[in-house]
Design brief:
single chain; 411 residues; alpha+beta; TolA/TonB C-terminal domain; five-stranded mixed β-sheet; 8 helices; globular
Length: 411
């Protein structure tokens, strides 16, 4: 049974300190990040994602890196994911005045997405309209339309699923100019001049896949080989490469942007340097193009462990789907709205997977979706006290698994 695509309009406001690489002449600068969520029990071989241009200067010149690991960990906890991987990021610049807009293309395993961000107004904070379209056979299909209010120094995160139920997340972070962000950006590190020179040489004469410029289409792919030494040492993770293709679509230069280990870096470079792309044409003239490639290395043991965890949750239970209906609720305890969440204006729906025992008592709970960890905890504390009618199968009581949605709404 195919899973319907659905949209989470869940905003997670994270109080991270904002930083900026450099002063900007634009009215507003925003960093866009695209994350991939790995659900529990999901198994995948090493694979690739091509995406939009990513500046290699980011990891080299920013020590705090906008709290990336903290941001990934927060998304992972809130949505009860096995892990969260950064696929790409881009620096977007609005015009020199309010009510401007920017757009950005990225590609996930052959599926093209376009993010369109409209700045509706600015009064000490930004009021934005976000549209995300998936381009199928060159026809846009909307997967996310929502508004957000974003303060300098906060991060807003939105999630959506593709047609196969794969979760992805978009994060938005105001990075400049200085008057739009508190605290102001720190001074650049001493090595910045050297890094800028290296990047300038890497970019010279090439088009960057940013904004409406799409990354090229992959024509030939060589899968990366998982190094045996890395497997034996339990090394896994994501390698981000900045790739430059020549006028004919062949890979001519590769820069490592992020990598968990040198072994995975080498394996990624060895594979990607053999790839071939469609040539990039600008006004009917072939041009070199720069974009990012992300390669993910997964250990089988990690996936197996999660599969066993899911199997244990479901073992011996009936699943409420199709003609099998969830049991009737006979005792309900209302959740307590956390004061901290209320003060921060956090609201939304928490979706839980619940397992009841033979007597109808709640014995296990897993978080499927949540706008914030504070609401997750409050929902779990309430639901674990609920009582249901026992589920009977052929006259005998059995455990049953179903979903419960707990809504938190501010007045």
């Amino acid at each position: 049974m195919s899973k319907k695509k659905f949209v989470w309009t869940l905003i997670i406001l994270l109080g991270f300190s904002a930083l900026s690489l450099q002063a900007s002449d634009s009215f507003l600068d925003i960093k866009l990040r695209v994350f991939e969520g790995i659900k529990e029990g999901m198994t995948e071989p090493p694979r690739f994602v091509t995406s939009s241009y990513l500046r290699p200067t980011l990891t080299a010149s920013i020590q705090i890196d906008f709290g990336l690991e903290k941001e990934k960990g927060h998304i992972q906890r809130v949505f009860n994911l096995k892990s969260v991987n950064l696929l790409t990021e881009a620096d977007l610049k609005f015009g020199t005045k309010e009510k401007s807009s920017v757009s950005h293309f990225f590609r996930l395993n052959g599926n093209e997405y376009k993010v369109h961000i409209m700045l509706l107004g600015w009064k000490n904070k930004g009021d934005f309209l976000i549209l995300v379209n998936e381009h199928i056979n060159d026809k846009p299909e909307n997967v996310l339309t929502t508004e957000m209010i974003l303060l300098g120094g906060n991060i807003a995160v939105f999630g959506f699923e593709d047609r196969k139920g794969k979760p992805y997340f978009l994060s938005f972070h105001i990075t400049g100019p200085k008057d739009k962000v508190l605290p102001p950006p720190p001074p650049p590190p001493p090595a910045r001049k050297k890094i800028k020179k290296e990047i300038a040489e890497f970019e010279e004469g090439a088009v960057r896949a940013v904004g409406d410029v799409k990354p090229p289409k992959l024509l030939k792919k060589v899968d990366p080989v998982y190094p045996e030494e890395a497997r034996e040492e339990g090394i896994s993770g994501v390698v981000l490469l900045s790739v430059r293709a020549d006028k004919e679509g062949y890979i001519e230069q590769i820069k490592i942007v992020k990598s968990p280990h040198e072994l995975l870096s080498k394996a990624s470079v060895e594979a990607v340097k053999q790839w071939k792309y469609q040539p990039m044409y600008i006004k009917d003239k072939p041009m070199p193009i720069i974009f990012t490639v992300t390669i993910s290395f997964k250990l089988e043991d990690e996936e197996k462990e999660k599969e066993e965890e899911i199997a244990g949750f479901e073992e011996g239970a009936v699943i409420a789907e199709g003609d099998v209906k969830p049991p009737k609720l006979v005792k309900k305890i209302n959740p307590i709205y956390p004061d901290e969440a209320r003060k921060e204006g956090i609201e939304g729906a928490v979706i839980l997977k619940v397992r009841t025992d033979k007597e109808g008592g709640v014995e296990k709970i897993r978080v499927l979706e949540s706008p914030h960890v504070l609401l997750s905890h409050a929902a779990i504390e309430a639901v674990k006290q609920w009582k249901y009618e026992p589920m009977l199968k052929k006259g005998s009581p059995v455990p049953i698994i179903f979903t419960v949605t707990v809504s938190f709404k501010l007045k």
